[in-house]
């Protein structure tokens, strides 16, 4: 039986090491995907700035195509990282604190990179919107602030795909119009990506969070078991001391009883001798 127990322990330890190795392997792959994200973000920033600085339609088309391509690649990296995190969780012992710690690191690392990318994209979208508003006003010089705002919002949300250039249709005005359309398209693309990333952010968090309560309960139960064990140990110690004291008191009582009996016997003997003497 002891041999079977030792065999069972060895099998469990081997399984635990195998599961941990699989999780660590997935963690390395996730780190590689996130490293790709960082590199692509570094490539994306100067291209985004080039789009902001562009003054011709040809440059707008070229740089926006590059921006779209890199943004798609970054989003794909995040989705692959999420799939790797899900694979790491699949079949793993979520109640093993060491494995749970690794999975928590993986998910938090993905979420941190997503948040950094979302923050950068929001800044870029705001810069593009500022340019859209300014150039829309350029091609509509007689429009009021409210008319400009309504026109910009219609374009940004895709309700208006094109607009007429007021007054003389100069080359400069047409360039401005095309710039508005290119930038508004880029903004809509960013907003769609942000929505997708928001969903991905929540999905990654749920990989570990829904197991947090059972794990916390397990830890709590272990702590309560340890506490109860300690209380039981203290009570047992007291019982042992009480038992020792009881044994000590028993001998004292026995001694007193023997002494009393001896005194009684001595008194009886003495009394008998006295009566015999009389």
From TrEMBL:
Cited SUPFAM superfamilies: t-snare proteins
| Domain of life the protein comes from | Eukaryota
Tell me any Pfam family this protein matches: SNARE
UniProt entry keywords in alphabetical sequence:
Membrane, Transmembrane, Transmembrane helix
Q: Which Gene3D superfamilies match?
A: 1.20.58.70
Molecular function (GO) terms for this protein are: SNAP receptor activity; SNARE binding
Renumbered to this chain, the Polar residues biased-composition regions fall at 43-57
**GO cellular component labels:** endomembrane system; plasma membrane; SNARE complex
Domain T-SNARE coiled-coil homology, residue spans:
177-239
Q: Tell me the InterPro entries matching this sequence.
A: SNARE, Syntaxin, T_SNARE_dom
Q: Biological process GO annotation list?
A: exocytosis; intracellular protein transport; vesicle docking; vesicle fusion
Question: Which residue ranges are recorded for the region named Disordered?
Answer: 35-62
Q: So where does this one cross the membrane? A: 251-272
User: What is the similarity comment for this entry?
Assistant: Belongs to the syntaxin family.
The name this protein goes by in its record: t-SNARE coiled-coil homology domain-containing protein
């Amino acid at each position: 039986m002891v041999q079977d127990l030792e065999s069972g322990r060895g099998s469990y330890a081997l399984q635990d090491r195998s599961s941990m190795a699989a999780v660590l392997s997935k963690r390395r792959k996730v780190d590689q995907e996130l490293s790709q994200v960082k590199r692509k973000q570094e490539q994306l920033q100067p291209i985004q700035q080039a789009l902001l600085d562009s003054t011709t339609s040809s440059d707008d088309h070229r740089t926006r195509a590059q921006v779209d391509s890199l943004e798609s690649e970054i989003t794909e990296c995040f989705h692959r990282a999420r799939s790797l995190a899900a694979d790491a969780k699949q079949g793993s012992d979520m109640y093993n604190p060491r494995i749970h710690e690794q999975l928590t690191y993986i998910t938090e690392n993905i979420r941190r990179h997503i948040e950094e990318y979302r923050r950068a994209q929001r800044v870029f979208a705001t810069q593009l919107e500022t340019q859209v508003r300014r150039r829309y006003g350029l091609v509509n010089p007689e429009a009021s602030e409210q008319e400009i705002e309504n026109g910009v919002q219609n374009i940004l949300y895709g309700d208006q795909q094109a607009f007429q250039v007021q007054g003389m249709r100069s080359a400069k005005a047409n360039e401005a119009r095309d710039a508005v359309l290119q930038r508004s398209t880029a903004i809509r693309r960013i907003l769609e990506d942000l929505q997708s990333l928001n969903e991905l952010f929540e999905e990654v968090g749920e990989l570990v969070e829904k197991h947090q309560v059972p794990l916390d309960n397990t830890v709590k139960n272990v702590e309560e078991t340890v506490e109860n064990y300690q209380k039981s140990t203290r009570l047992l110690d007291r019982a042992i001391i009480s038992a020792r004291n009881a044994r000590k008191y028993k001998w004292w009582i026995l001694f007193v009883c023997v002494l009393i009996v001896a005194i009684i016997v001595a008194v009886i003997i003495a009394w008998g001798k006295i009566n015999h003497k009389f």
